[in-house]
Each structure stands twice: as structure tokens, then as C-alpha cells.
Amino acid sequence: MKYPNFKDLILFEDNDFIVINKPPFLASLDERGAAGETNVLRLAKQYSDDAQVCHRLDKETSGALIIAKNPDAYRHASMQFERRKVNKTYHAVVDGHVIFDKLLVDLPILNDGNKNVTIDRAEGKRAETIFDSLKYYKHYTLVECKPITGRMHQIRIHLATQRAAIVGDDMYKGKPVFLSSIKRGYKLTKGEEEQPIMKRFALHARHLVFKGLNDQDIVIDAPYPKDFATLIKLLDKFDA
């Protein structure tokens, strides 16, 4: 993978914080078994010596990610996450025509380690997400997701419980979107194997609000990366 220039990812910067638009396929932090692999933390430390990543996005998830430039900023952001004061909004494309109107999914999540996450009412930790349908297509829906808690894979597993798996999320039975399935008369050349429109699951951290050290709101909008924007454009054209 060709790694981006860190400066090109920056959406916001002041003396205390940087917010980047994390590209897909770039880990937030060092991962087990991925020694020496480039990630957001390593890129950030090359740019600002004391940089610390304040929260995680799954490797495939793109979008707004907060980085602290000093220990005070890191503490300040961590407290906001702990007290659930950070306002996070994600966009996801899901299988099927699903109508969500401020649907609150309140299902506890158990993290078994090794990236294995299940709904477990007895042992799981509280997890809440609010879902709203933004746009309907013939075969898919663009959904706004607001996690109140911050559990691992929370949005992904909560959507799967509603029979609305994120497209391309094979861990939760989400199927990829192929152009042939939405474009009438689409033909592959002989011997060609069709690739999905997006080579990852369609989840993007779109909007973020948190407080700076001066207690003023920092409001971030992260534009869709190229693959997500292409998926939306093709759905608008062929599946509306």
C-alpha cells in the first residue's frame, strides 16, 4: 500500500489537536503481529513528536480521527470520550431497504479478544447506537450511525442485528456491491473476474464534535474518500 503524506490528511490543526481524515486500510495504532507496519500513530509522531491517537477506527474504516499533540490535550480528549461527550456520526451503506427513524439499539457487546465480538446480554458491556436512514436505493440504504458508547465493532454488529449488515463486511455477513448487480446490461469481458465497487466495508466517520482546551467546540466534517464516494455515485446513478 502507498502511504499518504500525513499533511494531506489534516482536516483541522491548532496548538493542541490534529484531526485527520484517516484513509482506509491504515491502522490507527500498532497492531499485534504487525511489527514495523506504518500506522496513524507512527505517521503522526513523525509530524509532531508527542502525538497520541485519542481513539481508534477499525483499519478498514475511514474518516475523522483525533490526535493530541501534548499530554494535556490527550487527557482532555480522553476524559471527553470516557464521559461520552464526544459527538460522533458515521455513514454506512447497508444491504436492503431499511427504514430507521431514530432507532436506538441497546445490546451489550462482549469482546472475546482476537477481534471476536458478540452480543452477550449476560457478560457483555453496555453498547448503544442510534440509527437513521438517510437515503433509500432499490437494494441498499445509506444510514447515519451515532454511537453513544465506543465498543469494538459496535456499529457493525448492531447493524447486523437489525438485518442490515454493512455492505462488504463479511465478518457480519455483509455482501460486497458489484456493478453487475445494479447496472442493467452490464457485461464482463470474457475471462474477467468482476471486482466489488468497494474492496472494504462501507463505513466512514463523517462528523465529529469535541471541545478544545479552551472549552470551545471543534466541529469536523470528513469528506468521503474516493471509494465511498464512488459507491454513492454509482448507487445514485444505477440503483436510485
TrEMBL record:
GO terms for biological process: enzyme-directed rRNA pseudouridine synthesis. Residues 16-160 form the Pseudouridine synthase RsuA/RluA-like domain. It comes from the Bacteria. One of its GO terms (molecular function) is catalytic activity, acting on RNA. Pfam families: PseudoU_synth_2. InterPro entries: PsdUridine_synth_cat_dom_sf, PsdUridine_synth_RluA-like_CS, PsdUridine_synth_RsuA/RluA, RluA_PseudoU_synthase. Belongs to the pseudouridine synthase RluA family. This is RluA family pseudouridine synthase. It comes from Pedobacter chinensis.
